[in-house]
Write a structure and sequence with these properties.
Number of helices: 11
CATH class: Alpha Beta
CATH superfamily: 2-enoyl-CoA Hydratase, Chain A, domain 1
Helix content: 40-55%
Radius of gyration: 17 Å
Distance between the termini: 27 Å
Structural class: alpha/beta
CATH topology: 2-enoyl-CoA Hydratase, Chain A, domain 1
Strand content: 15-25%
Largest sheet: 6 strands, mixed
Length: 245
């Protein structure tokens, strides 16, 4: 069974993470499928918007570390790298519905979304430094722009988890929704986006994202440092301790 599931409904492409035994942790095959579904949706005129959703009351617990350690060369064809740059190139709007854990990539991907909704169980974390790594996906640029330098430093350097109320206060999510209504509420908002005039919507998104070149440059720098840290003795020690847990 595929750990990435897709459903197209009335102009909305719903992409779901479903790997319950690993708390929806992303392995490289999941990254590959995510990228393929996004690229296919971009080329399909019937798809007007994307929605990301984690099943089993968990958005994603982050990267599958064991899988990453076996594939640590983060070149341009690495599935995770292709996914990150696919996010930067998306023209159609992206919405996320977050329940439970949103760790690592589970939080950084939200910085690339247009709308983010969460329920009361949502827990966010950016534990890169905890694992002797550096942030990914341009988070070192996007997060300070969104929440301010001091708060971004707290979230990235200490790597502590924070709840939906804190994420909402920091403008990282649009709204906290009742647990049982999260999916349907996010879907209704996504469907409303899908019914907007597509060209005007896409151009407006582009106008709100004027620093694309800077984002690309920062992503490349992040990946270079991430790759180097992934192979460091410091990180290997942290990974061994993490995997033993």
């Amino acid at each position: 069974m595929s750990h990435i599931q897709v459903q197209d409904d009335q102009g909305v492409r719903i992409i779901s993470f479903n790997r319950p035994d690993k708390r929806n942790a992303f392995d490289l095959n999941m990254y590959k499928q995510l990228t393929e579904y996004l690229i296919e949706g971009e080329a399909d005129n019937d798809i007007r918007a994307f929605m990301l959703y984690g099943k089993n009351n968990c958005f994603t617990s982050g990267n599958d570390i064991a899988d990453f350690l076996k594939n640590s060369d983060l070149g341009p064809n690495h599935p995770a790298v292709r996914f990150l740059f696919c996010l930067l190139e998306l023209k159609k709007p992206l919405v996320a519905a977050v329940s439970g854990a949103a760790v690592g990539i589970g939080t950084t991907v939200l910085l690339h979304c247009d709308l983010v909704y969460a329920d009361s169980t949502a827990k966010f974390q950016l534990p890169f430094v905890n694992l002797a790594l550096v942030p990914e996906a341009g988070a070192s640029l996007l997060l300070p722009e969104l929440v301010g330098y001091q708060k971004a430093a707290e979230l990235l350097l200490l790597g502590e988890s924070f709840n939906a109320q804190t994420a909402h206060r920091l403008n990282m999510i649009n709204e906290i929704v009742a647990d049982e209504e999260l999916f349907s509420y996010a879907y209704r908002r996504q469907k409303k986006l899908a019914n907007q005039p597509p060209q005007a919507l896409q151009i407006t998104r582009q106008l709100m994202r004027p620093h694309k070149t800077a984002y690309n440059t920062k992503c490349i720098k992040n990946l270079e440092q991430f790759s180097a840290r992934l192979k460091s003795d410091e990180a290997k020690s942290r990974f061994q301790a993490f995997l033993k847990k």
